[in-house]
């Protein structure tokens, strides 16, 4: 039985192998460069020495001619100088030669001449061009695709150039050299040829090792993508059937079991997504797609999405968005939302009581836009100093060990750090165990368009005094600060009794009440408050809109707004003109025109080879007035389309005999198939696979595990208007 090491060990080994190869390659490259630099300097020094010796020889000869009686001594000096010079040159392991301005070889050491041992004519006095011709025409040098005459012309062009670039020559005997040549002041040419055969071989081995590491990374990514597909396919059955089971008549115990199945399945899908994200980033394949986003609205959307999780732990979610920070900025919306979701989700997971606060601050303008700091603060368990040093590393957990309380892959913060780094920012953490944590990120984001309005937005003139009733100190202070900046006088109260006593003294123009403060006696509290306010507006903010709908006299409120409070929503309900000054607020659309008369039922074709997935899909749409037709592969889907002409096709991508992409291409090739909506269903999650799916001609894509609300949304968006498919 073969033992396969855990996936994380394989990933770590592959990454370490690639890192070692890259570090070794970089080290050899630096050593080679340093060696070349030293050899060049040595050659130049020898050149200067040769020139100095030649000058000395010339002076000695002149002196010998003019000074009678010294000829013998000068001759001895010249001989000695020549011997010393040749001995020095011969000590070089690399080839060294000097040519005069007429291209004649003056001096060459044994290393230089050894290449031409079969050509006796290569000796002092030979022309530089003749040496090039021997190399080219006698097959000494590998010319690759260049002709011999062209190669000689290239070498002579180097000779004539003002600056002579180094060149690599590969000889037929397997040796490779790097030829560095330099012209000196008197017109002579110094040539240094360094043997780089072993260096190139070593470099080739490093490149091969790097390619193997990259191939291993590609294989790892492909493996993870395939595993994701294989896991998501049965998970579609588990989660889909659990969702369908939850819609049936269940007692409390059965419903608890069903919810556990669903939440466990979703947790497994989240883990798969984390691993895929990390794999893509580790392979350097993460891409950013920046566009204009509404940062304030995005923060609120993320917190709204996570409100149920926070509500289960009675946590307060709070936003503090700098009123002088533009809302419209440029960033990748998907990645920015992923960062915020990771940080806020972690804060909720590790916080049992208290609050989670997201604060966005403008830190001044920059050459590229706006400096933004976003912090996520919580009152959770905190992080010890030793854990803070490695909290952003892969597979790291704050709560480690076999008895840890909090589940997770340990990849969330590592992925977040890499996304922030790719966006050109940085991330940090400050924390005290038992007190809480603060995760912060700093980004430089371009301003989108005009950036939207900044600064305080004035309230209507009729609203100059406001009573704010909330038991959450930080939330109360943030809302109070915004009200005061808008020109209102603010009274605050943390208990209902105190609030009502304040009302009796000086009734305010506006009352804002946190619904959480009156959960115990909500009906009585609201009735008394409304009686005291009379015609003055009352706005309720609440974390659970369902609870607010159950309150008596709820219809008499000016508005019920969800927490965390989006300031533009409050302004919108208080004054329509002021809402126009703020960022756009969704308004009720005009009444749609009456639908055309129903003439037939919706015809739906679903192509899927997995029986469980067929059952899940069938059960999800069984209550809808539509006709469902099933195909088990792409070939059957094409055949059914040709005979049935369905209104919508749901096409699984991976099927036997013919996959969904090929089936889509065949359907699109027919005249009747050009406009039929085709929605892909896939368990693949890698962007490359998604791109290939959409390129095949799909209109949209749903990922597995399939959610019923997403399926209904696809039907709503793509069903023809002349058919009836909605239940009731």
Q: Portion of residues in helices?
A: 40-55%
Shape verdict: elongated
Report the strand count: 23
User: For the record, what CATH class of the largest domain applies?
Assistant: Alpha Beta
| Global mean pLDDT | 79
Fourth-level CATH superfamily of the largest domain: PAS domain
Strand content: 15-25%
What would CATH call the architecture of the largest domain?
A: 2-Layer Sandwich
Low-confidence spans: pLDDT under 50, at least 5 residues?
400-406, 577-593
Annotated CATH topology of the largest domain: Beta-Lactamase
N-end to C-end Cα span = 58 Å
What's the number of helices? 22
What count of domains describes the coordinates?
Answer: 4
**Assembly state of the chains shown:** single chain
State the secondary-structure class: alpha/beta
- As a whole number of angstroms, the C-alpha radius of gyration is 39 Å
Largest sheet: 6 strands, parallel
Structure characterization notes:
- Strands 18, 19, 20, 21, 22 and 23 form a 6-stranded parallel beta sheet that branches. The protein has a 5-stranded antiparallel beta sheet with strand order 2-1-5-4-3.
- The protein is α/β, with parallel strands linked by helices and 728 residues long.
- The protein folds into 4 domains: 7-195, PAS domain (Beta-Lactamase), CATH 3.30.450.20; 291-445, Heat Shock Protein 90; 465-581, Response regulator (Rossmann fold, 3-Layer(aba) Sandwich); 600-724, Response regulator (Rossmann fold, 3-Layer(aba) Sandwich).
- It has 22 helices and 23 strands.
- Helix 1 runs antiparallel to helix 6 and helix 4 runs antiparallel to helix 5 (148-160).
- A hairpin with a 5-residue loop joins strand 3 and strand 4.
- The model is unreliable at 400-406 and 577-593 (pLDDT under 50).
């Amino acid at each position: 039985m073969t033992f396969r090491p855990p996936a994380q060990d394989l990933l770590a080994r592959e990454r370490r192998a690639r890192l070692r190869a890259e570090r070794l390659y970089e080290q050899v490259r630096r050593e080679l460069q340093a060696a070349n630099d030293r050899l060049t300097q040595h050659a130049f020094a020898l050149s200067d020495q040769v020139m100095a010796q030649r000058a000395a020889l010339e002076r000695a000869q002149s002196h010998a001619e003019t000074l009678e009686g010294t000829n013998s001594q000068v001759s001895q000096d010249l001989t000695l100088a020549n011997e010393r010079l040749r001995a020095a040159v011969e000590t070089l392991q690399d080839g060294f030669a000097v040519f005069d301005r007429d291209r004649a070889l003056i001096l060459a050491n044994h290393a230089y001449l050894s290449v031409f041992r079969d050509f006796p004519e290569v000796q002092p006095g030979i022309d530089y061009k003749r040496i090039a011709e021997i190399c080219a025409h006698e097959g000494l040098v590998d010319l690759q695709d260049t002709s011999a005459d062209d190669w000689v012309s290239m070498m002579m062009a180097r000779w004539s150039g003002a600056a002579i670039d180094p060149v690599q020559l590969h000889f037929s005997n397997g040796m490779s050299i790097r030829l560095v040549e330099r012209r000196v002041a008197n017109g002579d040419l110094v040539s240094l040829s360094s043997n780089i055969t072993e260096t190139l071989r070593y470099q080739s081995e490093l490149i091969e090792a790097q390619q193997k590491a990259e191939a291993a990374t590609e294989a790892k990514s492909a493996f993870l993508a395939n595993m994701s597909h294989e896991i998501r396919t049965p998970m579609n059955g588990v989660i889909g059937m659990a969702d369908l089971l939850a819609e049936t008549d269940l007692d409390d115990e059965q419903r608890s079991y069903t919810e556990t199945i669903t939440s466990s399945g979703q947790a497994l899908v989240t883990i798969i997504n984390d691993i895929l994200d990390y794999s893509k980033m580790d392979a350097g394949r993460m891409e950013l797609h920046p566009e204009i986003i509404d940062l304030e609205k995005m923060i609120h959307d993320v917190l709204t999405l996570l409100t149920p999780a926070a509500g289960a732990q009675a946590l307060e979610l709070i936003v503090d968005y700098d009123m002088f920070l533009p809302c419209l900025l440029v960033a990748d919306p998907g990645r920015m939302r992923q960062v915020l979701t990771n940080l806020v989700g972690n804060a909720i997971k590790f916080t049992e009581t208290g609050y989670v606060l997201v604060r966005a601050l403008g830190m001044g303008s920059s050459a590229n836009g706006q400096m933004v700091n976003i912090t996520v603060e919580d009152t959770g368990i905190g992080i010890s100093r030793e854990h803070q040093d490695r909290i952003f590393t892969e597979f790291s957990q704050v709560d480690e060990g076999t008895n840890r309380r909090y589940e997770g892959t340990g990849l969330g913060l590592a992925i977040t750090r890499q996304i922030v780094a790719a966006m050109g920012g940085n991330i940090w953490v400050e924390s005290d165990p038992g007190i809480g944590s603060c995760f912060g990120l700093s980004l430089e984001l371009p301003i989108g368009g005009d950036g939207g309005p900044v600064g305080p937005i004035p309230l209507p003139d009729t609203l100059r005094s406001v009573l704010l009733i909330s038991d959450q100190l930080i939330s109360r202070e943030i809302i109070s600060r915004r009200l005061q900046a808008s020109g209102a006088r603010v009274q605050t109260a943390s208990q209902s009794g105190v609030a009502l006593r304040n009302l009796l003294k000086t009734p305010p123009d506006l009352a804002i009440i946190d619904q959480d403060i009156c959960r115990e006696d909500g009906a009585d509290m609201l009735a008394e408050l409304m009686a005291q306010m009379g015609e003055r507006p009352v706005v309720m903010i609440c974390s659970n809109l369902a609870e607010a709908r159950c309150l008596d006299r709820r219809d008499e409120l000016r508005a019920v707004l969800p927490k965390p409070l989006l300031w533009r929503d409050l302004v919108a309900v208080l004054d329509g003109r002021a809402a126009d000054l703020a960022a756009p607020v969704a308004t009720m659309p005009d009444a749609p025109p009456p639908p055309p008369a129903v003439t037939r039922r919706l015809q739906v074709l679903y192509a899927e080879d997995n029986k469980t997935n067929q059952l899940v899909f069938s059960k999800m749409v069984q209550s809808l007035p539509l006709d469902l037709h099933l195909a088990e592969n792409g070939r059957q889907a094409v055949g059914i389309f040709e005979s049935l002409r369905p209104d919508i096709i749901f096409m699984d991508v991976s099927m036997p005999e013919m996959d969904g992409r090929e089936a889509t291409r065949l359907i699109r090739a027919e005249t009747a198939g050009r406009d039929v909506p085709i929605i892909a269903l896939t368990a693949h999650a890698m962007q490359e696979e998604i791109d290939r799916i959409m390129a095949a001609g799909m209109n949209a894509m749903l990922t597995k595990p399939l959610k019923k609300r997403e399926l209904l949304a696809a039907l709503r968006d793509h069903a023809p208007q002349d058919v009836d498919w909605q239940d009731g």
